[in-house]
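Our preliminary data section would be incomplete without showing what the modeling component actually yields. Below, a chain of 255 amino acids is followed by its predicted structure, encoded as tokens that our downstream tools consume directly.
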Amino acid sequence: MKIPSGTFVTGSGGCYIGGMTDKGCILVVDDDREIRELLAHFLREHGFAVAVAADGVEMFQRLEAQVPDLIVLDLMLPGEDGLSLCRRLSATHTVPIIMLTAVAADADRIVGLEMGADDYLTKPFNPRELLARIRAVLRRAGQSAAGEGGQRVSFEGWELDLGRHELKREDGTLVLLSAGEFRLLQVLSENPQQVLSRDFLLERTHGRESGPFDRSVDIQLSRLRRKIEVDPKEPGIIKTVRGGGYMFSLPVVRR
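Predicted structure:
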């Protein structure tokens, strides 16, 4: 079944398959069988290995067999919903997550990002837009890992390992970051003591321009602050510059 370029996908759903390609493996989690099959077919046509799941139970079963390169996760699922599943995934995995949300659910999109989603797409949507989001997220994740080797970045009691995608305190405690949080911290630390606009950060972390109501960067930055700042309400590492954006205020040491 082929999806014409003008076809739009609506409804709720989730996904997964075996096999790998050079494009990567995508797990689609949606309870709508038709949407699962349409998206799986469409993504396979564009070179991805795809696995599908209908709910959270099946999703975790797929994850036990193989961790994908990215998860497309629907918000409205039977049993445990997408927001709860996203929170659980972010606590145990660094795999990027693109959340599918209802058309007018701004609050759900915001909560999804707060739970650890790396990006979101509102229904109804064009499959080509989802493909573009997937490619952008995977490209950013690949750029984070490619060519970094064992390079490490240190700043005021923290060490960011760019090769292993790990953040550690000076006492060796590992702090788990989502893929989006890691990429945001990497970009900030690559440009220390410089004011970076939201548009710049969104393009570097998500590969797209900011919309008038896009709060992706603000929400992921808020999550990041809660993990690395002594007082997230009075941040000393990542400062807000009124009318300008954000600034990583500390000097960094690269090894």
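Residues 127-145 form the longest helix (19 residues). Residues 1-20 have pLDDT under 50 and may be disordered. Preliminary results of this kind motivate Aim 1 of the renewal.
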